[in-house]
């Protein structure tokens, strides 16, 4: 049985790496959040959610790598994690070059120089059999949001709770340093939490050891805050090849990308490259093609979309797309529900009967907790600390990066 399936033509024409989610989205995310509120105290911005606590837990930042940077691979922790991998099974595929302007955004070689055997999704549109790109059942919709937690995540959660829906949030470890409480609230409300690396770098541009560091540090901070060990991972920009796949597989991860053509491109709104109405129109026409989606076993399936809980703009867009799709018969749900995966974490939780996630004792002394829509968050003995260490805003740094990014975005066509 071939291990990988080439589906390059459809995916490559619709979502080549040059058109994938931009690292700039992450930058906007930081800046917008700090513009809303430049302190660690969270205030409601444009919505009211009385159930959410206003207090803000702090993470002991000293024990984690600096945010938004690829973690040091020479630390004892990373060396120990690296030693757990059987490197003889990892394909010897060269580390991909990054763009000069944005170093860890993958630079695709010319088409005639592409090695298709590496199954590089972001440059060749190759999907492995084990990659999740669709929901297996017709009219189901895998609702996913990337790059949080952010302040906008709360508004998203508020809306989903109103609709009695749950989603999968792909979490960036660096954001957990800033908003641990929002991550906890996502878990408390029965949402499914998954991995989106530490610094949001293109994984094919990283060395083997850097990939391990990216995943394991993010895994650790999410586990420290929630007691849950992730099982699903979405590589930033969908940037994955067989080398990255094998490393992630050995760390216990299932890879999720998204359905070809179902990237909402919401991140482009943040760069004024597209208007909300254009996305709504495009989404509506895609809804008409949903019957063409086939699952991994060749039966009619449902889409897995790509959205971002980054800003009020992307959240507001999502609030328009959800009712539109539901009216056409799609049922939004988190990925665990869409995949009928009753054990959607490596440790610590199970799929509840209503499709929301329930936290259970995971054998690691984390206590028990049931997170269901409508229930208040409870103390589940996370290892959050109240360290006096405060988080830095890094505003100056990010404005500098934004300038560089804006300068290059036109050239790159991102
Ligand atoms: Zn992302």
Architecture overview:
The structure is a single chain. With 414 residues, the protein is an alpha/beta fold. The chain has one domain (4-412): TIM Barrel, CATH 3.20.20. The protein is 34% helix and 11% strand. The protein is built from 14 helices and 16 strands. The strands form 7 sheets. A 4-stranded parallel beta sheet has the order 7-6-5-12. Strands 1-2 form a two-stranded antiparallel ribbon. Helix 5 runs parallel beside helix 12 (312-327) and helix 11 runs parallel beside helix 12 (312-327). The radius of gyration is 20 Å and the shape is globular. Mean pLDDT is 78; it is low at 1-55 and 362-414. The site of zinc ion (ZN) has 6 residues, from strand 5.
Proportion of strand residues: 5-15%
Question: For the terminal residues, how far apart are their CA atoms?
Answer: 37 Å
The helicity comes to 25-40%
The CATH level-2 architecture is identified as: Alpha-Beta Barrel
Mean pLDDT: 78
Indicate the low-confidence ranges by residue numbers: 1-55, 362-414
CATH class: Alpha Beta
The string of secondary-structure elements, in order, is EHHHHEEEEHEHHEHEEHEHHEEHEHEEEH
- Under CATH, the topology can be stated as TIM Barrel
**Rg calculated over all Cα atoms:** 20 Å
How would you write the strand order of the largest sheet?
A: 7-6-5-12
Q: What form results from the Cα inertia axes?
A: globular
Q: What compounds are bound to the protein?
A: zinc ion
**Major beta-sheet overview:** 4 strands, parallel
Total helical elements = 14
CATH homologous superfamily, by name? Glycoside hydrolase/deacetylase
């Amino acid at each position: 049985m071939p291990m990988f399936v080439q589906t390059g033509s459809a995916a490559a024409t619709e979502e080549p790496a040059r058109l994938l989610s931009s690292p700039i989205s992450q930058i906007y995310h930081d800046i917008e959040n700090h513009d809303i509120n430049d302190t660690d105290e969270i205030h409601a911005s444009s919505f009211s959610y009385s159930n959410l606590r206003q207090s803000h837990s702090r993470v002991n930042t000293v024990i984690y790598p600096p945010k938004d940077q690829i973690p040091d691979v020479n630390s004892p922790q990373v060396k120990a994690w690296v030693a757990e991998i059987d490197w003889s099974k990892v394909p010897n595929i060269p580390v991909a070059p990054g763009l000069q302007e944005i170093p860890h955004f993958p630079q695709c070689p010319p088409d005639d120089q592409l090695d298709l055997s590496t199954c590089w999704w972001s440059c060749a549109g190759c999907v492995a059999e084990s990659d999740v790109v669709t929901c297996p059942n017709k009219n189901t919709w895998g609702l996913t949001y990337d790059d949080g937690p952010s302040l906008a995540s709360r508004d998203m959660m508020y809306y989903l709770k109103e609709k009695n829906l749950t989603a999968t949030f792909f979490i960036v470890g660096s954001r957990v340093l800033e908003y641990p409480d929002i991550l906890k609230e996502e878990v408390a409300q029965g949402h499914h939490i998954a991995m989106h690396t530490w610094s949001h770098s293109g994984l094919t541009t990283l060395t083997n050891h850097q990939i391990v560091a990216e995943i394991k540090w993010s895994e650790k901070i999410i586990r420290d805050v929630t007691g849950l060990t992730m099982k699903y991972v979405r590589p930033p920009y969908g940037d994955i090849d067989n080398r990255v796949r094998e490393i992630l597989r050995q760390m216990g991860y299932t890879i999720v990308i998204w359905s070809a053509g179902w990237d909402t491109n919401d991140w482009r709104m943040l760069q004024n490259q597209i208007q909300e109405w254009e996305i709504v129109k495009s989404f509506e026409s895609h809804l008409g093609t949903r019957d063409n989606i086939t699952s991994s076993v060749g039966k009619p399936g449902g889409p897995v979309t790509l959205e971002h809980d980054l800003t009020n703009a992307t959240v507001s867009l999502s609030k328009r797309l959800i009712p539109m799709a539901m009216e056409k018969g799609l049922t939004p749900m988190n990925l665990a529900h869409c995949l009928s995966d009753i054990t959607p974490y490596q440790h610590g939780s199970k799929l509840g009967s209503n499709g929301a996630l329930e936290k259970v004792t995971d054998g690691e002394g984390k206590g028990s907790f049931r997170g269901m829509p409508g229930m208040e968050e409870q103390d589940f003995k996370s290892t959050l600390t109240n360290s006096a260490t405060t988080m830095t805003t890094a505003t100056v740094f990010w404005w500098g990066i934004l300038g560089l990014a804006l300068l290059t975005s036109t050239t790159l066509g991102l």
